[in-house]
Here is the input.
Amino acid sequence: MIFTKMMRSYSETIKTEMMSRITGSINEEEFLDRMGKFYDINREIITINIHFNELWNPALLLWSISTLTSLVLNCYNIVLLFDNKDSENSIGIHIRTYVSFAAIFSVIVGSGDIIDISDDTLSFLFKYPICKLSEPEAHQVEMLIYTLSTHKPIIRASDIFTVRTELLASISGTVVTYVLVALQFTPAWKN
Here is the structure.
């Protein structure tokens, strides 16, 4: 995802610039100027995240529901194909199932990476030796920490659920449950 790459680049730049201040590579004025720019960039990232959520909220929710439904039906069909030993139609169903799972997995892992990068940046900033900085520099770092901790980039689906790595376990449980329930009714449908 582009957003993940942007967050990773932002995080690495913050770490590099802050370490260069400790080593004395840049002076106080440059550091304050760069910290102000980091703060501005972070506000832009927050704005992008808000617009992304507003734009994709209904689409992401509909995509999640349709992909999950497709995944459940395709898994059920795969189980039925193994029962009937029918291999003519199985390749297409296998491909659809794997593509559905890969799509869900990539979206969930991508949004989890964004959150992990944000947490990693915060962890670095909390460990940063603020006592070696002047008062204005320390204030800028504290302001950046506050902004990063209060406005984390999160991808939501219409404010119904947050797309995180923990969602993968929930989706897997749902797929397995519905496939097992459908398999229990299969003998009744054949009669």
